[in-house]
Design brief:
Number of helices: 17
Distance between the termini: 26 Å
Strand content: under 5%
Order of helices and strands: HHHHHHHHHHHHHHHHH
């Protein structure tokens, strides 16, 4: 029994149990009974506070998939618990697990979280203002999926706020945070093209700065983010030529130069292949 296995094991065995449980939910979650879904959340949610990062990630991913199928009242209850104002001052590890869970819930079940969105937005904002790199990386994922949902449902304020926060973090002193922020912007632009285009002014100048990075993965991530914001595959140079009118001379020249040298030659990704799973599941599992 996978639920008991998750509760009664630890380390690599527990990670494997979480992965197997997640697979069941991904492929047959709609057939899982409500009592069993309740027992899954009861067994997995405490693991968001695990000292082991891989276990926190696996638990968060599993909760995200669980959110697709959970009963409405249980989903609302757990969401409110995750985003509640932490007056007890719990350690950053617990906050990290909670932020990861919200990230995966926004990915897998964003439309089911609308009743709690007014609580989720300030929670994600607070995570984006943290001072620890792992927290900021998780927050960038949460912020990007929140931006996607907001952009696709006409919620301009949270979409704008998330775009601005991600753009700010794209200039962070820590390379991994910059990459997470840039991947978040790319995710927003790819999954919500209209939303990202509407809030391009919050992101473009920071992205142009990142295209001058010596760090190749950071520079490449910035270029791809610009590629998707301006929908280069579909629009060629048209959107860029129209947008440069909003920029000062130096930034306008840099964008046009970047477009000619790089953006028009980018090969469109067939899929973003669950980049968050790569970043937070496979990577942390070694």
């Amino acid at each position: 029994d996978l639920v008991n296995g998750v509760k009664n094991t630890d380390g690599g065995v527990q990670e494997a149990m979480l992965r197997a449980l997640r697979g069941v939910l991904l492929h047959a979650g709609g057939t899982v009974s409500p009592p069993l879904l309740s027992s899954i959340s009861a067994a997995v949610a405490p693991l968001l506070h695990s000292e082991q990062e891989q276990v926190r990630v696996g638990a968060a991913f599993t909760i995200g998939v669980w959110a697709r199928f959970a009963k409405d009242d249980e989903l609302i209850s757990l969401t409110r618990e995750l985003v509640a104002d932490d007056s007890s001052g719990s350690n950053w590890i617990s906050q990290h697990g909670r932020c990861l869970a919200v990230s995966f819930m926004l990915k897998h079940a964003a439309s089911r979280l609308d009743a709690s969105l007014k609580l989720i937005v300030p929670f994600v904002k607070s995570c984006l203002e943290d001072d620890k790199a792992p927290m900021l990386e998780a927050a960038c994922m949460a912020g990007s999926y929140l931006a996607v949902h907001a952009g696709n449902t006409g919620r301009d304020a949270p979409a704008r706020d998330m775009a601005a926060a991600l753009a700010s973090l794209s200039l962070h002193q820590i390379t991994d945070v910059r990459r997470a922020a840039l991947n978040g912007i790319k995710r927003f632009a790819k999954r919500s093209p209209q939303g990202a285009a509407q809030h391009a002014s919050a992101m473009v100048v920071s992205l142009l700065t990142c295209t001058k990075e010596r760090n190749i993965p950071v520079r490449s991530a910035a270029e791809r983010a610009l590629y998707y914001i301006f929908q280069v595959k579909a629009k060629g140079m048209d959107a860029i030529n129209a947008y440069v009118k909003n920029l000062d001379g130096d930034n306008a020249r840099q964008l046009q130069d970047c477009a000619r040298r790089v953006l028009t030659k980018v090969v469109d990704e067939e899929s973003d292949a669950s980049a968050d799973e790569v970043e937070f599941d496979e990577h942390t599992s070694g």
